[in-house]
Fold this protein.
Amino acid sequence: MSGTTAIWHDVECGSYDADLPLWEELAEGQGGPILELGCGTGRVALHLARRGYQVIGLDRDRELIRELDDRGGDLPVEPICGDVLELELDRQVPLVLAPMQFLHLMRSKEERLQCLRRVRDVLQPGGVLAATLLGSLPSEPPDALPPLPDVREVDGWIYASQPVAPMGWIGPQLLLKRLRRTVSPDGTLTEEDNRIELLFIGGPELEAEAATVGFLTVGRGLIPETDAHVGSVVVVFERSA
């Protein structure tokens, strides 16, 4: 049975698929092996591996990496537990993906620059980094109903994660709050709060930072919003020789 960290990751992230066509397009153009940053339980890594690409999945959470290893089976997936700020590989790759909010999890400009330097070092000359950035949150009337909870059943247990208002920018920080509810097979209900703070950075700012460590901006892509997720911008960089 999956641990609770992996279960909540699946509940809150596992069903998201709006970005997958873009990752497929980049993989087709660059080939593998592909390094995914913040791979979690393998939402993107397993999707690409099933299409024949060799994927290296990096995450600093051991439970999530163990789950990816279990799910990978005979697929060409290599799970690595580690921090991107200390990233080292024994080979260079042609493509690095940073999906969802990965770069927003960097706690400062200095951490972001360190991340970009480490990624540049593991990319082949001419290799590509594609990084997702959040757009502005949509404005909602104060009496708007909250989104429906994300729900999953695992071995008779029910896991439900409900976004909680207020959710928005506080200075450069985006505060995400969720109420997690667990119902056991005997009907016992437990609740806990979950909170994530994301550091905002816009596309032009990221492009300027990336240029200082040896990247060229070569394009942008758009990921459309869904009923449960805001739209995103993907900035595509190429490592200079």
